[in-house]
Design goal:
Two copies of one chain form a homodimer. Chain A has helices spanning 22-41, 55-59, 65-68, 92-102, 148-163, 177-185, 191-198, 201-215, 220-230, 238-244, 251-270, 332-339, 365-377, 391-401, 438-441; strands spanning 45-46, 52-54, 70-74, 85-87, 110-119, 131-140, 169-175, 233-234, 275-278, 288-297, 307-317, 322-331, 345-347, 355-357, 382-384, 405-412, 415-420, 426-428, 445-447. By secondary structure, chain A is an alpha+beta fold. The first copy, chain A, has three domains: 14-48 and 91-346, 2-Layer Sandwich (BirA Bifunctional Protein, domain 2); 52-87, no CATH class; 349-450, 3-Layer(aba) Sandwich (Rossmann fold), CATH 3.40.50.800. In chain A, the strands form four sheets. In chain A, strands 1-5-6-12-11-10-7-9-8 form a nine-stranded mixed sheet. A five-stranded mixed sheet of chain A has the order 15-14-16-17-18, sandwiched between helices. In chain A, helix 13 links the parallel strand 14 and strand 15 (382-384). The model of chain A has no long low-confidence stretch (mean pLDDT 92). Strand 3 (70-74) of chain A pairs antiparallel with strand 3 of chain B. Chains A, B: Keywords: Aminoacyl-tRNA synthetase, ATP-binding, Cytoplasm, Ligase, Nucleotide-binding, Protein biosynthesis. Chains A, B: It catalyses: tRNA(His) + L-histidine + ATP = L-histidyl-tRNA(His) + AMP + diphosphate + H(+).
Chain lengths: 452, 452
């Protein structure tokens, strides 16, 4: 072959593998930057793991995992080569392996964040992707994990989401010990099974949940109690009294109420208005043992949670040592799917460049590059016009990309001039001194009217 | 299953899939930040493509590509499911497809950068990886591409590399039209074959290259001429005269010399001392048609090039329209493999946190979190101590992670105090006003003595 050009017939999107245009990518970058910056302000260290794990490790993660895994094998190995590796489908499984592998070199409690792509072979639909970016934080410790970390997680997430250029959000918090203790207190033995049915409340409603509960063996009275518990919701500590009013007693329930009260109390002090105790939240995964979190955008509840997680007693274990942890994961691609997909957030331009340096004629390129070099030295992103076309054409080049300023070397009596092409105002300027207003330095990412 | 914990037996590295410890990852992040920031200062827009492409497109890229491709298929599909997709092995093939797919929505000439992981199934060795990060820039246009972009690429790369905390580097430049025209001028017909043999110079030396050339059909005199051309190297325009002195005439040679002179002249003006015309550089890939680039670290020549690329007449084509381009790719993982692998560059700490807020007792956590919130609001990364242990133990917690400051709420008569744990100096401070020296705000990434 003689060129990297693909066959035209093959040029098409692949369902579930989203790609962005440059201005949309600037929106994604802004969200990723906010997430990283906030995670780092909270003292989390970055970890990246390889994209693949042995199939056996991925397959052991839940009954439905198999059908979602993408296997990876060398093409040249042909059908003889058994797939030993798969692409990771979350950050938790690889992080657990990373902790075990590097335990001797990490400082515990270990605070890490991890922003990476993951892959799942599920059927694509709005808000569900086969390739997607997740942004996780976890705190993991050796043997014991202090409960205050469960109260810290939603503070970090509240900090991240309040820096996003979007509307209101709410972090819903529950503690698995509350339904666990409550169910045991009213005589239900299949706690996990009951939790899984109650978890369907949002999807199928209370009547069908009650029917399923009774079908699974609870009495109608027990089912009503389960539904009454799941209906409790408060932005303050009111949930404690509401649960008490149901008259159920169990030590695990007491423990759960105290734990959740601590999380909500911390939220009221440091992220007021962001947290709600919502006793309906359960999270499907078996391994959560304490606080669980979900996060919704107000007005977009039908999309479900954009950021979820919880506390687990055993993130990892090597047989001798157990590593408990608490973590939460932001579904970056899901958020972008909503906000970019529906045009709720846009970028002011499609390039980082704030300035286009115009070319007076072909011989003046060296002068133009010197201007660009001086601007870049002071952190001003710019590019030199591709050709010494008419100035009107060069201005349109900038317009098309949303570049706000065009620089004309030697245009004025005193030297260079710079034009704000939105207002048309053109003023004398020196490349060693001129600075655009802060809001023009980088692309601005904002909510559109549709999103306000 | 009840936990995400992997089986202990499976906890091991996979050869060719590098992972870093937190302090090493900070080094990698610094390099990636410098690359992104510099690309954006030069007005390149970010693009990310999906990780997979149809196998047919990947397979058409060169004779040896097949054996390097990782095929991807749904595990649940079993052996019946034919692999239709593969992981991309570079950024060029997916970018070419992206340009064709979005041509109507992009503004040409289109300047894009792309920093992503890629995968190759090759045998791992020092400096070669199966999973690796590349950072590419390309300028692509419709129909024609102005030659000045070939001179611009190495300026961007010189800007990136001179911001790295490493030693000297040199960007070697050639123009494929020079050997092409020269070979034709001395009567060699198999230009590509000759180029491929001469490309082995670094590996096997001039004697073996001459033998191979003669074996391939050249006369000993032709072979000597080829070697004489490949030996030419100059940091200024001297190479033109040296080539002329060999007495060979061909229109393509003239074109190539003029083109390379233009690139070197631009480099002398805007990146003095960084570029060298090196007529040995050829680049293996067939599709380069003009300028080609390689980049070496001085003192680490045996590692070969860390950043390579060139000009191609047809990055992509849909049969009607052809998109010529010029691009260059930084092998980020290769650079880190050298610098981190050999301990030549290190980070001053393993966490972004500049401050550890100490806990006086368990009841003072709320006060400590308030201090942390105030510091973060002013961009100071910090964390609160995990437990109200003895202060000595809390200081050791900071020490172990390289956190330079420990904050003691209410420790002094006037209020809070902060201690620089390196010097031991402790001073009164307010969380609303205190700022660490700029060099302590973020981890410092520096060359070690071994690397100086």
């Amino acid at each position: 072959m003689n060129s990297p050009q693909p066959k035209a017939a093959k040029v098409m999107p692949i369902s579930g593998f989203p790609e962005y245009l440059p201005s949309e990518r600037i929106v994604e970058q802004r969200f990723l930057d906010v997430i990283r910056e906030t995670f780092e302000l909270h003292g989390f260290s970055s970890v990246e793991t390889r994209s693949i794990e042995p199939i056996e490790r991925l397959s052991s993660q839940g009954e439905d995992a198999d059908k979602e895994i993408y296997a990876v094998s060398r093409l040249a190995g042909g059908s003889d080569e058994e797939a030993r590796w798969g692409l990771h489908f979350d950050m938790t499984v690889p992080f657990a392996r990373y902790v075990l592998e590097n335990a001797g070199k990490l400082a515990f409690p270990f605070r890490r964040y991890q922003i990476q792509k993951a892959w799942r072979g599920e059927r694509p639909q709005e808000g569900r992707y086969r390739e997607f970016t997740q942004a996780d934080i976890d705190v993991v410790d050796v043997g014991q994990l202090s409960p205050h970390f469960e109260a810290e997680m939603p503070l970090v997430i509240a900090d991240v989401f309040s820096r996003f250029p979007v509307g209101e959000f709410v972090i819903q918090v529950n503690d698995r010990k509350i339904p666990n203790g409550f169910y045991q207190g009213i005589g239900i033995t299949d706690v996990i099974g009951t939790l899984r049915i109650v978890d369907k409340l949002d999807k199928i409603g209370p009547d069908k949940v009650k029917a399923l509960l009774v079908e699974s063996g609870t009495t109608p009275e027990q089912a009503d109690q389960c539904l009454a518990l799941a209906a409790i919701r408060s932005t303050d500590l009111g949930f404690v009294e509401q649960v008490r009013a149901l008259g159920v007693e169990h030590p695990l329930l007491d423990e759960g109420l105290e734990s959740l009260a601590n999380v909500i109390r911390t939220g009221m002090a440091h992220a007021p208005g962001r947290l709600v105790a919502d006793l309906r939240i359960a999270r499907g995964l078996d391994y959560y043992t304490g606080t669980v979190y979900e996060t919704q955008f107000v007005g977009h509840e039908s999309w479900g949670s954009f950021c979820s997680g919880g506390r687990y007693d055993a993130l990892a274990s090597d047989g001798r040592t157990t590593y408990p942890g608490v973590g939460i994961s932001i579904g970056v691609t899901r958020i972008l799917g909503l906000l970019v997909g529906r045009g709720l957030v846009t970028a002011s331009r499609s390039t980082p460049a704030a300035v286009l340096v115009a070319l007076t004629d072909d011989d003046s390129r060296e002068q133009a590059v010197s201007v660009a070099t001086a601007l870049r030295r002071r952190g001003i992103a710019c590019e030199v016009a591709p050709a010494a076309a008419r100035f009107g054409k060069q201005i349109r080049y900038a317009e098309r990309r949303g570049i706000p300023y065009v620089w004309f070397p030697g245009a004025g009596e005193a030297g260079d001039e710079v034009k704000d092409i939105r207002s048309g105002e053109q003023v004398p300027a020196s490349a060693d001194a001129w600075t655009p207003p802060a809001e023009d330095l980088a692309p601005v990412v904002t909510r559109t009217d549709a999103g306000s």
